[in-house]
Write a structure and sequence with these properties.
Layout: H1 3-24, H2 30-35, H3 42-65, H4 82-105, H5 113-119, H6 121-155, H7 162-177, H8 182-210, H9 215-224, H10 241-257, H11 260-266, H12 272-306, E1 310-316, E2 319-326, E3 329-330, H13 336-341, H14 350-383, H15 393-421, H16 426-437, H17 439-450, H18 460-482, H19 492-507
Antiparallel strand pairs: 1-2, 2-3
């Protein structure tokens, strides 16, 4: 299919989003932007959060990661990511029955106000600052992955520079979130999640049909190529199942329960009971949708094998690399799904290519629009204190819009940086970064919830929150040397939280 025709479908999709945004943002005010006037439908929030949590990274990296070769014995990663998903499910229940009751009891607009009421301004500003850092890095990494795919397969063919591609996508997101905020994205996320899951199902059915396999036969074929193994029992490796499950649980608690973006949508629901129903429903759907992404990953590798792809050594930057190659092109990891769906391995029906592009954009936008809205809310409320100052509705709106525009520019710069440091499989990078940036948040909130001790309203809180990730980085780099070959992986988040907790304990006193 021509790049011009695919671009027409992309433009049509944007126009549909603008119509939804215009309709839902009528009569909006600042409370609509920040928390949807606390009137969001819990079922819409639950379904829309699937798109926000999965994002374009899951859509591309999780299927592609099934065939990624592990260093130990050149075995594929297979369904190893599902260990993290099991941990995710446990983490969502902690959020539903521990954190949400706390947020509703305190009637929070920004969840970091909990730290202010519990410990004072320094803890509050530290928590909000780490969220802003974490979400900016994570959101722009996700955006980079999808925009890069759109650029490679559509926009570069039209001789459009990468920076223009980035600018256009960000302007689109800016325009449809500028006025309505949470009130708008509850509806746009629902639309986008529907299209993303539809794309996932259609692509799965097509590949099964093309290979003339039933679902059971496909699973057997994957198993024959060692693509279905879930549990890693080597405790020294980063993929050891207990590390992955425990790390997955804490990743969820930190990246969802202590994240203003996702909690902003939850606390926009009318009451605690509906918010808890939202979280439990979302977690169960998330569990099965991610499993289907892994199955699709196995199918994509079977499809590529069937049409001549395979592993071989190629030269990358003058170094030999073991990669999955089709037609002399490296399609390892994030490149696999786009290569199959857009017909680079074997000619595909045009409707599959269209569905893939629309589903990919639908996976991109829920994480991007929610992040931009949540960062704007957090910066305005937590850093600029617009709720505490004597500002009227118009003044607050002007500040909010200025921050929204500034953050869009920051997103633009960060995506260009990711372009410069490019990675073949970005989901591992996001999980690694989350361990360092969300760890201090985990330590701060757990100290507040699990102890009754008080902290001095002092810069030492921020200092501890900075030192802890540095210690974790040092320990992770040298753990094989110091710990008899043991490699620290996803559990770095838990270690980071523990270091922060211990540091806070050392400066605390009895309340």
């Amino acid at each position: 299919m021509s790049a011009e025709l695919l671009l027409c479908f992309v433009i049509g999709y944007f126009l549909l989003l603008f119509v939804v945004a215009w309709y839902t943002s009528r009569n909006s005010n600042n409370e609509s932007f920040f928390i949807g006037n606390r009137n969001s439908n819990w079922m819409l929030v639950a379904f829309g959060m699937i798109g926000t949590s999965l994002s374009g990274v899951t859509f591309v990296s999780v299927p592609g990661g099934v065939g990624n070769i592990l260093k130990q014995g050149f075995l594929p990663n297979a369904f190893g990511y599902f260990q993290v998903v099991i941990g995710n499910l446990l983490g969502y229940f902690v959020i539903a029955f521990v954190l949400l009751p706390l947020y509703y009891k305190m009637n929070l607009t920004s969840i970091y106000n909990y730290l202010k009421q519990r410990f004072g301004t320094w803890a509050y500003k530290t928590g909000a600052s780490f969220f802003i850092l974490s979400r900016t890095v994570g959101a722009t990494a996700r955006l980079y992955l999808v925009i890069n795919i759109l650029h490679i397969f559509i926009l570069s063919r039209l001789n459009i520079p990468f920076w223009v591609s980035v600018a256009v996508v960000l302007i689109m997101i800016l325009l449809y979130t500028f006025k309505g905020g949470v009130k708008t994205i509850v509806y746009t996320d629902t639309l986008q999640t529907t299209l993303m899951i539809l794309g996932l199902i259609v692509c799965t059915i097509y590949i099964l049909s093309n290979l003339h396999l039933s679902f059971g036969e496909a699973i057997n074929a994957m198993e024959a190529k060692s693509l279905t193994k879930i549990f890693n029992t080597d405790f020294k490796t980063k993929g050891f199942f207990l590390k992955q499950i425990i790390g997955g649980a804490f990743i969820t608690i930190a990246m969802t329960g202590l994240d203003q973006e996702l909690m902003q949508k939850n606390i926009s629901v009318k009451n605690l009971k509906d918010s808890q129903k939202n979280m439990v429903t979302f977690s169960i759907i998330f569990f099965f949708v991610t499993l289907l992404f892994l199955v699709l990953g196995g199918l994509l590798y079977l499809y590529a094998y069937h049409y001549g792809a395979g592993f071989k050594t190629i030269m990358v930057d003058n170094k030999p690399v073991w990669a999955f190659v089709s037609n002399n092109t490296n399609i390892t990891g994030d490149g696999l799904f786009p290569s199959v769906a857009l017909g680079l391995i074997q000619s595909m029906p045009s409707f599959i290519s269209v569905i893939f592009i629309i589903a990919l954009i639908s996976a991109l936008f829920p994480s991007a629009d929610g992040a931009l809205t949540a960062l704007t809310s957090s910066f305005c409320i937590d850093i600029l204190d617009i709720k505490e100052r004597s500002l009227d509705e118009k003044q607050q709106r002007n500040i909010r819009m200025s921050v929204h525009l500034t953050l869009t520019i920051v997103f633009f710069v960060c995506i260009l940086i990711f372009r410069w440091i490019d990675s073949r499989s970005i989901i591992d990078k996001i999980l690694d970064m989350a361990g360092y940036t969300y760890g201090p948040l985990l330590g701060l909130f757990s100290f507040g919830i699990l102890t009754k001790r008080s902290l001095p309203n002092h810069f030492s809180i921020a200092l501890i929150a900075v030192i802890s990730p540095v210690l974790c980085y040092y320990l992770q780099q040298y753990s094989p040397q110091y710990l008899n070959g043991y490699v620290i992986g996803i559990e770095v988040l838990l270690l980071n939280g523990i270091f922060t907790f211990i540091g806070l304990l050392s400066i605390s006193k009895k309340a």
